[in-house]
Amino acid sequence: MRGEAKSWGGQRTRAADLGDVDALIDLTALAREESPLTTQLSTLEATHLRDLLAAWISLEGATMLVAEVDGKLVGFAQAQLVTPNIYIDVPILQIEGLFVREDFRRRGIARQLLAEVSRIAGENEVEHIVTIVLTGSRQELRFLSGLGFAPAGARRVVDTATLNRKLAGPARERRLRGIDELIARRRRSRDLTTTS
Q1: Rounded to whole angstroms, how far apart are CA atoms 186 and 196?
Q2: Which of 139, 145, 105, 144 is nearest to 11 (CA)?
Q3: Is residue 141 part of a domain?
Q4: What is the rounded distance in angstroms from the CA atom of residue 131 to the CA atom of residue 118?
Q5: Which of 13, 23, 55, 126 is the most exposed, fewest CB within 10 Å of its CB?
Q6: In which domain, by residue range, is 27 found?
Q7: Can you tell me the distance from the alpha carbon of 135 to that of 31, in angstroms, rounded to the nearest whole number?
Q8: Is residue 152 domain-resident?
């Protein structure tokens, strides 16, 4: 799934190649700084990231597009073709990452990257493009919504130690006690409103 180079107004999108990996590491570091999920889940190690990016660029069914302005990489779109499986009946193109440097935003770069993603989806006869909201920022949500992306679930994160601690406790008793307390509060509330 390799995209062709497209130019517009001194800006250009194209498929990434292995020569772009170092610049992509810098862009990925910026994207990770904006993502609350990354902050919680991992730390940046350039050597490991270099290997991951190189593997992604070479991976069958994966796409890494880059946007350039005057020869400088300023954004990327990372997508993967997902074939039907136990959860989906049709193939989808899943955008794993979409990022444009803050100082190059509002120039149509993300839209151009998404136009290339859409073209690739069409070439692969994929009817749905799915993305994960990385930062949750109002700007990101408005941008995606304006392009027709609709909510389809949400992610939740927990560290393993916390989950194990919660699972080890007497969940049923806590839940029943919580329901009993809720019912008692509602009864008290009703009694207060009827006597006033």
Answers
A1: 16
A2: 105
A3: yes
A4: 12
A5: 55
A6: 6-146
A7: 9
A8: no
Predicted confidence (pLDDT) at residue 149 exceeds the cutoff of 50? yes
Q: What per-residue string of b and e applies to 66-95 under the rule 16 or more CB within 10 Å gives b? A: bbbbeeebbbbbbbbbbeeeeeeeebbbbb
113 contacts 13 by C-beta, under 8 angstroms = yes
In angstroms, rounded to a whole number, what is the distance separating the alpha carbons of residues 21 and 10? Answer: 22
Q: Which residues on adjacent β-strands are paired with residue 76?
A: 66, 99
Q: How many structural domains does the chain have?
A: 2
Is 110 within the bounds of a domain? yes
- Please indicate, yes or no, whether residues 51 and 105 belong to a single structural domain of this protein: yes
Q: Please indicate, yes or no, whether residues 96 and 139 belong to a single structural domain of this protein.
A: yes
pLDDT in tens, 22-70: 899 888 888 877 766 554 444 556 778 888 888 888 888 889 999 999 8
Within 10 Å of residue 109's Cβ, how many Cβ atoms? 23
- Assess contact for 23 and 39: CB atoms under 8 A: no
What is the distance between the alpha carbons of residues 126 and 52, in angstroms, rounded to a whole number? 25
User: Are residues 53 and 42 in contact, defined by beta-carbon separation less than 8 angstroms?
Assistant: no
